[in-house]
Amino acid sequence: MSINEKDSANTTESENSGKKIRILLVDDHTLFRSGLKALLQRQSDFQVVGETDNGLDGVKLAEQLQPDVVLTDIKMPYMDGLELARKLNQDYPNIYIMLCTGFDEFEYAKEAVHLEIKEYMLKPISAIELSESLMKLKTTLDREREEKLNVKKLEDYFQEVLPKLQSNFFISLIEGRVREEDYERFLLDYRVDMKGPLFCCMIFHTSENDVPEGMNPLLLSMSVEREIKQRLMENCNCQEFIYMGNTILIMELHSEDEIAQLTDKCDRFCRWAWRIMGAAVTAGIGTVCNSLYDISISYEGAREAVSYRVLYGTKRAINIAEIVPKESKKAVPLEETRMQELFRAIHVGDQEKIRKEAIKETEKLHKNAATISQYNLATMEIVSGFFKFCANNSMDFNEISGNVQNLYERVTQLDESS
Fold first, then answer.
1. Strands 281-289 and 198-206: what pairing?
2. Cα–Cα distance between 334 and 337 in angstroms, integer?
3. Residues 40, 38: Cα–Cα separation, whole Å
4. What is the pTM of this model?
5. What is the pLDDT of residues 1-42, one digit of tens each?
6. How far is the CA of 323 from the CAs of 207, 284, 307, 328, in angstroms?
7. In what order do the strands lie in the sheet with 281-289?
8. Closest by CA position to 286, among listed 254, 226, 329
9. Distance between CA 220 and CA 209 in Å, rounded?
10. SS (H, E, C) the chain
11. What sign does the CA torsion over 257, 262, 268, 270 have?
């Protein structure tokens, strides 16, 4: 018994070329193997990467060398060629099997058909016959390689854009735009692996007004985002993305007890960001929800928490659950919910879109408010919504309101003649 292998340098060179067909010879006739090897060496498209005289060692070499083709005899010691083919088909289905058999072994060759062996040849084999069979096999292998390469390119491209797809999906979730019947499919398509059982949304708002001298507010916000990834996302199953200028974290939780620790961790980060980076960061912690599908509820809680920085100050974490009593927690305030399109238009700066959305909100107000008291209440909620929007986006509320003094008082003074 003898086993001859190419040295590792030649093997690596063959693997890197990616064009030659790598062949393993398995035959107990030394002279026949030598003749085959000599024929193949004259073909520039093929390379003999190993050889052995029995099927048992053929399995070992196939595992070690990973050839494209195994060219084998049928009758051999220890393990015959058909058993070798069965083993390779089971463990390495991508390896092609070619059988070489004598005339008296033709019955064995018919068994090869059941094993889906691509080619078998009768000994003695001529150089022309061998070359034609191998070239036909090479055409098949080249076509398969090209198909696999195309699939791999698509998979590589999908992996490249997957973070963006996931971010867009989560933005749709917090905006409440994902239909329940599509939810599970999107989780699978975008490979979102967040099983909970609990979830929470956090918003990190970096002030654009309170920045170090000479620092671009956008660059400072990007630096904060990078530090959030490094300091808060370690050992956590969460999703991070940017939305309306803020860094958003969707966090997977195992129990509600984790919220207190999470709030403290965010609070320490805000203080660190101010001390080291000069960034006035406010972290808003939303309510805990039982389903990722309902994360929009937690997001609205986080937004409300961030807006309370006007009262509680910046450079800290604010947990909405510590401010709003549990019995008063609601999914989303009506006015803020319906005004999201208007706020989004203001944030983008699309004047025509702002005008259209403002007209829509005015029409809704006229339609839904039947009395002056209802007008007053609805208008107060709109003013409050604008105030929170300005606070969340570092906008001057007085400038937007036209510098009207005592705006809340003015609203309460509305009557039928206003």
1. antiparallel
2. 5
3. 5
4. 0.50
5. 444 544 444 444 334 345 688 999 999 888 888 888 888 888
6. 22, 11, 12, 10
7. 238-243, 246-253, 198-206, 281-289, 316-319
8. 329
9. 11
10. CCEEECCHHHHHHHHHHCCCEEEEEECCCHHHHHHHHHHHHCCCCEEEEEEECCHHHHHHHHHHHCCCEEEEECCCCCCCHHHHHHHHHHHCCCCEEEEEECHHHHHHHHHHHHCCCCEEEECCCCHHHHHHHHHHHHHHHHHHHHHHHHHHHHHHHHHHHHHHHHHHHHHHHHCCCCCHHHHHHHHHHCCCCCCCCEEEEEEEEECCCCCCCCCCHHHHHHHHHHHHHHHHCCCCCEEEEEECCEEEEEEEECCCCHHHHHHHHHHHHHHHHHHHHCCCEEEEEEEEECCHHHHHHHHHHHHHHHHCHHHHCCCEEEEHHHHCCHHHCCCCCHHHHHCHHHHHHHHHCCHHHHHHHHHHHHHHHHHHCCCHHHHHHHHHHHHHHHHHHHHHCCCCHHHHCCCCCCHHHHHHCCCCCC
11. negative
Write the single-letter amino acid at 29. H
Cβ 182 vs Cβ 257: under 8 Å? no
* Residue with token string 């030394």: 30
Q: Which two tokens stand for residue 348?
A: 């983008």
pLDDT tens per residue across span 326-365 = 434 444 444 445 577 888 887 777 888 888 888 888 887 7
